[in-house]
Amino acid sequence: MRKHFLEDITFLIPVRIDSIIRLENLLLSIDNITNYYHVKIIVLEATKYNNGILEKLIKRKVSYLFYQDHDDIFHKTKYINILSQEASTKYIAIWDADVILNHTQIIDCYSNLLSGKFDLAYPYNGTFLDMSYIIRSYYMVNKKISILDNNKEKMNLLYQASGNIGAVGGAFIIDLNKFNEIGKMNEEFYGWGLEDGEFYYRSINNKLKIYRSNGPLYHLTHPRDLNGKFHSYFQTTKSKCELLKTIES
Questions:
Q1: Which SS3 state, helix, strand or coil, does residue 130 take?
Q2: Does the keyword Transferase apply (predicted)?
Q3: Cα→Cα distances 237→98, 114, 194, 234, 248, Å
Q4: Where are the alpha helices (DSSP H) in the chain?
């Protein structure tokens, strides 16, 4: 199949590999992009030591960065901002390490951004679906998006931001200059939760023109550890306060 060239986008994927399932999910997510596009991808792994495994598995497809980090909490917003400094393209795609979508939704966003009518694009319609382990296993073997499309009713709906805007996490593509102008990701969000909603509302407050593609975003399920949920009452409260502060500003 003929691949499209996306010269003006760099995909940025921060990750902490804490299980084989997380590793498998990342590889599936990368393939979901590289099977259809010639595009720059940078993966940043942050963990206690570099065992070399991830770099060996992905080095032919992506650029790899390693940051030694002894903190049990994965400070995702910080690493997204570090990754953004590595990009030299007009647009960056902030991508979770465990998402799958119909590849046409990426080119749809890319075309609309290139038109100059939009600054920020979400490559899905706000429906973010968590597949079961059974569906995930079936997708791993076949790698066909039709498997996911045909089993949507068996999946659970993930994160909804405040109001009726639908989910805003998992993946977005943005003009790099605009990303910098509005302050990048908010590093006050330490660990999992609510940072994507805060970024969305901050984008609205700064009058960014936002586009949403049709079609859902699929989440490759995985066990939930400290970095898949709120890890303390203090963190929960602080994250909610940061979100409300932006919504009400």
A1: strand
A2: yes
A3: 26, 39, 11, 5, 16
A4: 20-34, 53-58, 76-84, 104-114, 133-142, 145-149, 176-181, 195-205, 233-247
CA–CA distances in Å: residue 175 to residues 3, 59, 92, 167, 217 = 23, 26, 7, 20, 21
pLDDT per residue over 45-59, tens digit each? 999 999 999 999 998
The tens digit of pLDDT for each residue in 20-37 reads 999 999 999 999 999 999
What average pLDDT score do residues 201-213 get?
97
pLDDT confidence bin for 162, thresholds 50/70/90 = very low
C-alpha 39 chain-centroid distance: 16
Distance CA(191)–CA(210), nearest Å, equals 26
What is the tens place of the pLDDT at every residue in 56-65? 999 888 999 9
237 in a domain, yes or no? Answer: no
Q: Which of 95-109, 145-159, 212-226 shows the lowest per-residue confidence on average (mean pLDDT)?
A: 212-226
Domain holding 70: CATH number? 3.90.550.10
| Residue closest to 124 by CA, chosen among 86, 82, 96 | 96
Continuous segment of H or E residues that includes residue 63: strand 63-68
pLDDT reading at 216 higher than 90: yes
Q: 10 is in which domain, residue-wise?
A: 4-181+203-224
Residue 133, pLDDT score: 95
Whether 212 and 121 have beta carbons less than 8 Å apart is answered as yes
Q: Does residue 191 belong to any structural domain of this protein?
A: no
Q: For the chain, how many helices (H) and strands (E)?
A: 9, 11
Tell me if 120 is assigned to some domain.
Answer: yes
